[in-house]
Amino acid sequence: MNTPTPNTPPPIPKDEAIAPDAPVMTVFENLLKSPGAMIAGVREGKRLGSLAGKLIALTLIGLIIFGITLGSFSFGDQLWAAPLKTVLGLAFSALICLPSLYIFSALTGTSLRLPEIALGLAAALALTAALLLGFTPVLWVFSQSTSSAQFFGFLVILGWVISVCFGTGFLLKMLTHSGTTEKGPVRIWIGIFLLVTLQMSTTLRPLIGTSDQLFTGEKQFFLEHWSNEMSGNRRSQPDAEDNEGDGSNQQTK
User: Fold this and answer.
1) Which of 32, 50, 62, 249 could form a Cys-Cys staple with 133, CB 3.0–4.6 A?
2) Does residue 124 fall inside a structural domain?
3) pTM
């Protein structure tokens, strides 16, 4: 009698794989409740484009609602600027990190191919957006009940880190279901991806609060930016001296 070894997970029955034509809500529920079915659907390689489209749609919905919640802290142009920056920031982070994800995954010895890894990343982003969506009611309450951009920003960062860590954990589950036990390289990649998204949030600031500019155009490391914000020592724009008193140097996260 053949029994699976301790290091090899039992194969997922084919009837557990999510159907390529499954509705969006079914894809959403499988991400949260049955990631194994989602992974099996990815590995079957049938109509991956249809599944990818639904994952992208779920990601956009979650990020737009999350971004609107950020914008509701100050309203005005931030109601459209914050969602736009959130979507663009995460999309760009995913694109520039996909090649390194493929390389780090290959170092684990996995049998996953590039299309499967790319779709796995799309599923991880959709799961991240779903978790962010779960945080939005709490964030909205604080966006309407506090005027402290520092405290609200702390809550946003905390929710973001938690969501990205749990969302990208989908990639580790994919490795397990592919029969790979070495996950160290992908864990390192998750840390790199998180750092990239945090730096992107600083590059695209302001996401919280108001400014007379859509983008600040000032280069700053995200830890330096956070430190300045928490201490109230905001750096001025290069032309702040010429526009003193007009609020041009007002920046938040």
Assistant:
1) 62
2) yes
3) 0.78
CA dihedral 94→95→96→102, nearest 10 degrees, is 80
CB 185 within 8 A of CB 107: yes
Contacts of residue 137, Cβ cutoff 8 Å, sequence gap at least 6: none
| pLDDT tens sequence for the chain (253 residues) | 455 545 554 444 444 777 767 888 888 888 888 888 888 877 776 667 778 889 999 999 999 999 999 988 888 888 888 899 999 999 999 999 999 999 999 999 888 889 889 999 999 999 999 999 999 999 999 888 888 888 888 899 999 999 999 999 999 998 888 888 889 999 999 999 999 999 988 888 777 876 666 666 667 755 675 666 666 655 444 444 444 444 444 444 4
Question: What span, in angstroms and rounded, lies between the C-alpha atoms of 235 and 38?
Answer: 46
Helix, strand, coil shares of the chain as percentages rounded to 5? 70, 0, 30
The answer to the question of residue 6 being in a domain is no
Looking at the 3D structure of the chain, how many domains does it have?
1
Residue 84's identity, in one-letter code, is L
Single out the residue of 197, 193, 203, 154 nearest to residue 170, CA to CA: 193
Q: Is residue 88 part of a domain?
A: yes
Q: Is 11 within the bounds of a domain? A: no
Extract the tokens encoding 178.
Answer: 């592919």
Domain of residue 197, residue span: 17-231
